Amino acid sequence: MSNIDDLQKMIDNSKKIVFFGGAGVSTDSGIKDFRSSDGLYNMKYKYPVEMMLSSEMFYHDTKSFYEFYKDNFNCLNVEPNITHKYLKKLEDQGKLLGVVTQNIDGLHSKAGNKNVYEVHGTILKNHCLKCNKMYDAQYVFDSKDIPKCSCGGIIKPDVVLYGEMLPEDAFSNSCKIISDADLLIVAGTSLTVQPACGMIDLFKGKYLVIINKTPTPYDRFADLVLHENLSKIFSKLQ
């Protein structure tokens, strides 16, 4: 029996599936990840990526922050791939409790999933720091230099920057569904970013599956490990 068959059997035998995904979920849609050879961490910028995406950079050099942000995170024309679509299918079948994602691209929602918990926020929501008026991503990416509200305030993306806390609702709901799951599929993440990856420790269900191109610190705890491209795996599942 192949690893794909093993995974299919686990899915078939599970009623409360949770998918925990990272940047590798969206790379097949053409979005760069962070840690691969051509990812953001290996590109040359004025400051390290952690600094460019920090709350300190946003508040003290907003212009530089937005130059980097607009260059790298405008994925409004990007479409969901086979992995996103398969998860929508599982949700339609009533087998998927929810998707916990570290991604900010909004592709799970674009694919039609309803129960999506974005623990690092999303580019799709933005708010004025002065009056709290909400703006869509198109307004932010189309703006010149620093996006401003009609009241004159600076607009901030609802993404979790380095140095900020995770959104409380998304984090608590993610912890709950992971602890309730009978199958946890962890995919496209190196499982090195805290506190998000620490949620894996809450899983007490039957099957833990890890799908990632490279090994993770949690591989030794998993019931099934596949070091493969995600689209290659999910395109073969029923």
Explain what you see.
- The chain is of the alpha/beta class.
- The chain has a domain at 1-30 and 80-120 and 166-238: TPP-binding domain (Rossmann fold, 3-Layer(aba) Sandwich), CATH 3.40.50.1220.
- Helix content is 29%, strand content 18%.
- The chain has nine helices and nine strands.
- It has helices spanning 3-12, 49-52, 55-60, 62-72, 82-92, 107-110, 137-142, 168-180, 230-234, and strands spanning 17-21, 96-101, 116-118, 121-128, 134-135, 155-159, 183-187, 207-211, 224-226.
- The protein has a six-stranded parallel sheet with strand order 3-2-1-7-8-9, sandwiched between helices.
- A hairpin with a 5-residue loop joins strand 4 and strand 5.
- The chain is elongated.
- The two termini are 16 Å apart.
Shape: elongated
Strand count: 9
Oligomer: single chain
> Uncertain runs with pLDDT below 50, 5 residues or more?
none
Mean pLDDT, rounded to whole units? 93
User: Within the CATH hierarchy, at the fold level, what is the topology of the domain at 1-30 and 80-120 and 166-238?
Assistant: Rossmann fold
Assign the CATH class of the domain at 1-30 and 80-120 and 166-238. Alpha Beta
Q: Which class of secondary structure composition applies to the elements?
A: alpha/beta
By DSSP (H or I, 4+ residues per run), the number of helices equals 9
Strand order of the largest sheet: 3-2-1-7-8-9
Radius of gyration: 18 Å
Order of helices and strands: HEHHHHEHEEEHEHEEEH
β-strand amount: 15-25%
Sheet of most strands: 6 strands, parallel
Q: What is the CA-CA span between the terminal residues? A: 16 Å
Helix content: 25-40%
CATH architectural grouping of the domain at 1-30 and 80-120 and 166-238: 3-Layer(aba) Sandwich
